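Me: I keep going back and forth on a fold encoding question. No explanation is needed for now; the record alone will do.

Assistant:
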Amino acid sequence: MIFHVDANSFYASCEGLFRPDLRGKPIAVLSNNDGIIIALNAECKEAGFARGDAYYQKKDEMARSGVTVFSSNYTLYADISARLNMLYFRYTPDVEIYSIDESFLYFPSWDKKSLAETGSSLRERVGIEVGIPISVGIAPTKTLAKLCNKLAKKRGGVCAWAELDGDAELAHYPVGDLWGVGRSKTKLLARHGVDTALDLKRFPLHRAKECLSITGMRTVQELNEVPAIDRVERERHQNICSSKSFSRAVYDLDEIKTALSDYAQEAVKRMRAERSACRAVAVFLSTNPASETGEYYGNSATAELGEPTSFLPDIQGTALRLLEGIYRPGFRYRKVLINLIGLESEVRAQGELFVDDGTRQRNDALMTACDRINDRYGRGTIGPGSRRLVAATDRDGNRSAWVMKRDFLSPEYTTKLADVPRVR
């Protein structure tokens, strides 16, 4: 049996976790550079706001409605997510972490009473030990478990498929709300008379495969309680990008180099986590396409490395040389991007003939040490010197233009000693 566990309004719930004064009040979380609303709690939705709303257009209305706004605090969210999954592992050793706020838990097929009790126990335990509200959907397939989870949000937090009149529920469930059925597929299915989940359940398999490919056929099987969707294995990426828009226009090359070095270190960390190495590096630099002056400049450059590598100094040095080649003075730059291309397994990467294995081992040991230091003491604790060409903040506390705008950032309550709440 499969439990689909979803943390309700996860980002907003994390922000309210250490702010009891916000209980029952509207909360919204903004995207990078405080651009748009990416998460909000039920109270904020009831106030008339929605995901995707531009903050600059809604900020006055949000202030009048008493909405508390937060910048994205991914360090906090990732740590709370890890705590949730550690608790899930206490219930079953078979946990598939699907996203930062969703997981699939695999259990033996117990009797109905045990399933419901386990779901309620899990929900209660999470509330006590972590403080985040969750909903639990229980079903024999992942698609039905996701469906039950949506129903659970309005039915006390736990919903088991075995306790439902399955066909009656599917008859009232729009096919577009099913996991894996997008907007384009919804329109296609409508042309075949498939409007509800029950219609899709009864759709012939061969026609589902013709219209929706193998994925659609598997969804039909899952609606018929036949497990057909395997657990999602994290595939190795073919490329890894890292970039953020600057909070303000940047003119100075050293400032852009600082930003690029920061993004390169983040991209290499993600690549090393997959045990990959890259064959080439690409850098893209641009001004604001919607600049009031109308002077747009964008350019990119790519360089192939001597051998596939995950050694940050080699990758970063190449990226900085590419940046120097495409930089033009006098423009108001708003974005720089690094793309690691041609990723392959670090174990199988073919090295150069005259580079000995000892050099590679020393490089890997150095990067491993850096990764562990940054994991333990925080992102950016140690890194290349070019990350310090321009300080993130000056002596007066003014933020450099390349640093992402986060005016409403909450403390890192669980990962930074200085931010641990004090009880008086």
Notes: The chain has a mean pLDDT of 86. The domain at 239-388 is CATH 3.30.1490.100 (Dna Ligase; domain 1). The chain has three domains: 9-74, 77-223, 239-388. The chain has 13 helices and 13 strands.
